[in-house]
Amino acid sequence: MNNIRHNWTKEEISEIYERPLLSLILDAANVHKQYHSFGEVQISSLLSIKTGGCSEDCSYCPQAARFHTGIKVQALMKVEEVVSAAKNAKAGGASRFCMGAAWREVRDNSDFDRVLDMVKEVNKLDMEVCCTLGMLTEYQAERLAEAGLYAYNHNVDTSEEHYSEVISTRTYDDRLKTLSNVRSAGISVCSGGIIGLGETNADRIGMLQTLANLPQHPGSVPINALVPVAGTPLEHNKRVPFDELVRMVATARIVMPKSAVRLSAGRLELSVAEQGLCFMAGANSIFAGDKLLTTPNPEFNSDMEMFSILGLTPKEAFADGHPRRKHNLQHEPC
Ligand code: SAM
Ligand code: DTB
Ligand code: SF4
Fold it and tell me: What predicted TM-score, i.e. pTM, was given to this entire model?
């Protein structure tokens, strides 16, 4: 087995990223086979529990209040509505349920109490519960952990150098601090980024270096291709060519061998064959359901057809253990 490393240099990652595409895919597939059950793909379901009106200025995001994207702003959903969506997701084969809120940060108020109730209730369904709520303090992370949260999504999004070109209302260090708070609370870290923001290859490599050199590799690494949304500053950005997405997936797989690599936003633009190359190159998780947070995603039935064509099987919940369930000893940090 490869050793899990936390001291990757930019030169090493760049050498991997630049390999001839088919060799890169083969190398990544070999790493993937050593650490994962080949063809097993986690199905995550995503629900926007609070939509739009966000005070941040993330230039890719349709939910930032300052951009006029025409999305319908919605206050925090009711616990019962969320539980019912989670039950539907479970019936459709999802093993993880991720709740997203368009917040800059969590505040200690009744909305947070309601999110804690959502986490408790969805946890009872025996699904891996995930949240993405913006910045968290150590205490808030601990409260989420106590409520039964399995994973927390907080993306670094791009390289440290490129970050201020994309977002000005918070810093890269703010992002890393939240990830550290999440890790300290024993919650699985889900962190990745977006390609297609106008970054260079060096920025992509820098982002992967940040993720791969964290004290523990994230449990999951979402790789998003920008979905350009009218009204955002990035609305005219060009679509990311599929081979660049495959390169990101394969390089993430090689430098973080045990992590789940999630083929996230942007799948609607990819053919089954292109997605197949991503699964070959080590992607082993997707968001299923016809909507991401606010933008469209492939129809559930067409994803199931893809699973059948490519011979993919859905991954069970908690197959890697649970960091906070003491009777379950399978979970080892990456
Ligand atoms: N507000 C929280 C935060 O920023 O962490 C949680 C929700 S936020 C929408 C979650 C992630 O979605 C972002 O970090 C970004 O990576 C991704 N995202 C947002 N808009 C996107 C877009 N148009 N295309 C691709 N990914 C996007
Ligand atoms: C992640 O990395 N991608 C998901 C999830 N984490 C929360 C969100 C993608 C959002 C795409 C734009 C939208 O639908 O609003
Ligand atoms: Fe707000 Fe998150 Fe969108 Fe940034 S990515 S504007 S923090 S919802």
Answer: 0.96
Dist. CA 69 → ligand 3 center (Å): 13
Closest-approaching ligand to the CA atom of 218: 2
Instruction: Confirm whether 14 is domain-assigned.
Output: no
What average pLDDT does range 78-99 have in this prediction? 94
- The whole domain housing 199 covers 23-314
- 320 within domain boundaries: no
**What tokens were used for 149?**
């949260």
190 part of the active site: yes
Taking phi first (over 0 means left), then psi (-120 to 50 degrees means alpha), and beta for anything else, what does residue 331 get?
Answer: beta
* Backbone φ/ψ region at 40: left (φ over 0), alpha (ψ -120 to 50), beta: beta
Cα–Cα distance measured from residue 102 to residue 311, given in angstroms and rounded to the nearest whole number: 36
Measured in angstroms, how far is the CA atom of residue 55 from the centroid of ligand 3?
A: 8
DSSP strands (E only) in the chain? 40-50, 96-101, 128-132, 151-153, 188-190, 193-195, 220-225, 260-263, 283-288, 313-314
What was the pLDDT predicted at 92? 87
CA dihedral 76, 80, 84, 90 (to 10 degrees): 80
Count of domains observed in the chain: 1
What is the pLDDT, as a whole number, of residue 315?
A: 87
Rounded Cα gap, residues 181 and 189, in angstroms: 10
In the residue annotation, 130 being an active-site residue is answered as yes
Helix (H, G, I), strand (E, B) or coil at 41: strand
